[in-house]
Write a structure and sequence with these properties.
Layout: H1 6-30, H2 37-73, H3 80-103, H4 108-114, H5 119-125, H6 136-145, H7 148-161, H8 166-170
């Protein structure tokens, strides 16, 4: 029987985030040879789809597993479960954004690399390497991007948990 503990869901979710980060950095660094805005936009699209797709796939599998556990063990899993898991998936990005906001200088380069899924988007917002040049609107956009894992996980989980076949939507012909 698969583990039903929330901590195992969160830890597996972090593994998915690390895997997504590696794939996104590979795409970013592969397309980095060109300074063209077109390649940056293509990179943003590709990395965003990879990042969101992997999180949604993980949420789908988690919800399917939770449904199986509910049927086999005849237990009702708490409602907050998917929100907590999604929140913990966004937590590292929120913490990094707060650190960026507090330190500003010296951390922006690392921040961009740690957030490989949006690296080229950050380069489109501000191509500099110093966070002191970031505008208020850029910081707000970066803050909004920190909740992408939460939104992706919760929507995919809830749809799957409520009986919507996410695979048929994803692979619709």
């Amino acid at each position: 029987m698969k583990n039903i503990k929330l901590i195992s869901v969160i830890l597996k979710g972090y593994a998915v985030l690390v895997f997504a980060e590696i794939l996104c950095l590979f795409i970013d660094l592969t397309l980095a040879f060109s300074g063209s805005v077109l390649f940056k936009v293509i990179s943003v699209f590709c990395t965003s789809v990879i990042f969101i797709g992997l999180i949604c796939n993980y949420a789908y599998n988690t919800a399917k597993n939770d449904l199986v556990i509910q049927r086999r063990l005849n237990v009702k899993l708490p409602v907050y479960r998917c929100f907590a898991a999604g929140g913990f998936l966004s937590l590292p990005y929120i913490v990094l954004w707060v650190v960026l906001l507090l330190t500003r200088n010296g951390f922006y380069k690392a921040y961009k690399l740690i957030n490989g899924q949006f690296l080229q988007l950050y380069n489109l917002l501000d191509s500099g390497t110093d966070a002191s040049s970031l505008s208020f609107s850029s910081l707000i956009i970066m803050l909004l991007l920190t909740i992408v894992p939460f939104i992706s996980f919760v929507i995919a989980y809830k749809l799957t948990y409520n009986g919507v076949d996410v695979e048929s939507i994803q692979y619709k012909k």
